[in-house]
Amino acid sequence: MFKKLLTYGDTFCAVEHSEKTFNILKLKKEKNELKVLNTKQLESLDAVFLNLKKGQHLFLILNNQQVLFKQIEGTFKTKELIVNNAFSTIKLTEFYYQVVSSTPQKHFVAICRKEYVDSIVNQYQSNGVSVIDFSLHNLSIVELAPFFEQEATTTSNAEINFNDDSVESIQKKEVPAKNYHINDLEVSNDFVLPLSGILSYYLKTTNILGNHLEYKNSLKQHYLNKRIFSLGIKGGLSVLFLILLVNFIFFSNLHRKATNLNNVVLAKSNQKNELTSIKNRVDKKAALVNSMYSLSETKTSWIINTIGQSVPNKIQLTKLVFQPIKNTIRENKEIIIANNKIHINGISKSNDLFTNWVAKLELEDWVEKIVVLNYGKGKSSVANFEFEITIKD
User: Fold this and answer.
1) From residue 25, how far is each of 28, 48, 159, 172, 325 by CA, in Å?
2) Which of 163, 218, 220, 371 could form a disulfide with 168 if both were Cys (CB 3.0 to 4.6 A apart)?
C-alpha cells in the first residue's frame, strides 16, 4: 500500500480520446476507497493539457477513427495468428495490436499505427504528463467485467454484453447517456472506459495481450525515473532545510554559551581554556558548514536537475549524494566532506547507453572529471554502476 502511494500518490487518472470528445476521469483514494474526484469532457487535446497538472500520470484510451477493431472466432496457437486472421493485409511491425480472448474461440482485436500512438504519447510527455499505459478501442472494458451486475453496458461509442464475467460482444453504435453504479462509484457511460483504465493499473491486471507490452514497460519506467527524481529533490530540500534549522539552533546556543563564557573570563582567568575549547569547536563546525555550502543553492539545484534530465530511459538512479561525507561520523571526531563531489549509484540495462551518458556528462562545462568506481553485471540483465563527478570551482 505504501509502495503504491509512493509510486502514484493518492490520485489516479485516465483520458479517453473518443471520436468526438476527450473524456477525463480522476479518482482519489480516501480511507482505502477510490472516490470520483472529477470528470470532464473537452473538445481539444490542448484543453486536456490545461486541465492536467505537471507531473500527472495517466492511463490513455485511444478510441477514435485511428483505431481499427474486429471480432473473430476460431482457435489459434498465437496472438499473432489471431491478428493476422483479423487483419490479413497489414504489416504487423507498423502497428500496435491488442487482443482480448473471452473464450478459446472468441477474440476481440484492435490495432493502431505505432506512429500515431507514439505521437500522442510524445505530446503528453512534452507537456509534463506521463502516459504509463494505454489501450485501444473498447478493450479495456475487460477489466470492469467482474464488477458489472447487469449483463450489458455502454461506453462512449459501443454497447457491450457480458457472460460469466467475460466480454460476450462489443458492438459499435450511437448510445444515449446513462449513469452506472460500479463498485460504489457512479459514472456515466462516457467515463466507463477511463474507469477501466484506472483499475487496470491500480489492480495491476493484465487481461489485454499484444505487442505493446515492452512499450508499456518503457513508459512506466520513464515515469518512475521522473517520480523518483521528483521525490528525491523534494526530500533533499527538506533535509537541507532541516540541517539549516538544526545548525541555526545549534550555533545560536553555542554563541550564547560563548558570550556568557566571554563575560566570565574577564573575572575568572582560570576559565580561559574552556572558552578556547568551545570556540575551537564552533570554528570547526562553522568551517564544516561553509564547506558543505561552498556551491550556491541555485547552482546546486541546477546541476542536480541537469543530471536528472540527462538520464536515459534504460538507466535508473538509485542514489545521488551531493558532497558526500568521507568518513564515519563519530562523537568528538571531525566530519570530512568531499567538497565539489557528486556520488551517483544506479542500474543500467545497456552498457553502451551508460558509456554514452557518462561521456555526455563529461562534456558539461561544470564537470572537471568523472571517475567510474564500479560497473558490473549481476545475475539479472541489468548492471549496477557507481561513479563520482568532480565539479569545477
Assistant:
1) 10, 11, 20, 22, 47
2) 163
Contact 338, 324 (CB under 8 A): yes
8 A C-beta contact, residue 354 and residue 325: no
Q: How far is CA 63 from CA 69, 74, 143, 309, in A?
A: 10, 25, 16, 32
Give me the amino acid identity at 284. Answer: K
Distance of CA 135 to the CA centre of its chain: 19
Name the band, by pLDDT with cuts 50, 70 and 90, for residue 272.
low
Q: pLDDT of 67-83, one tens digit each? A: 999 999 999 999 999 99
- Cα–Cα distance for residue pair 5/68, rounded to 1 Å: 36
Cα separation of 95 and 52, whole Å? 28
pTM, two decimal places: 0.59
**Distance between CA atoms of residues 139 and 108, nearest Å:** 8
Farthest CA pair distance, the chain: 103
The β-bridge partners of 162 are 167
Closest CA to 188 of 36, 366, 7, 337: 36
Compute the distance between CA of residue 341 and CA of residue 326 in angstroms, rounded to an integer.
11
**93-111 pLDDT, tens digit each:** 999 999 999 999 999 999 9
List, as one string, the DSSP characters of 255-319.
Answer: HHHHHHHHHHHTT-GGGHHHHHHHHHHHHHHHHHHHHHTSS-HHHHHHHHHHHHHH--TTEEEEE
Question: Which residue, among 311, 335, 334, has the nearest Cα to 387 in the 3D structure?
Answer: 311
- Contact indicator for 160, 148 with CB cutoff of 8 Å: no
Kindly give the residue spans of alpha helices, DSSP state H, lying in the chain. Answer: 2-8, 45-50, 79-86, 114-126, 192-202, 213-265, 272-292, 297-310, 351-362
- Compute and round to an integer the Cα radius of gyration of the chain: 29
Residue keyed to cell 500522442: 120
pLDDT per residue over 214-268, tens digit each?
999 999 998 999 878 556 555 455 555 565 676 667 667 776 876 777 667 666 6
Q: 29 with 198: CB under 8 angstroms?
A: no
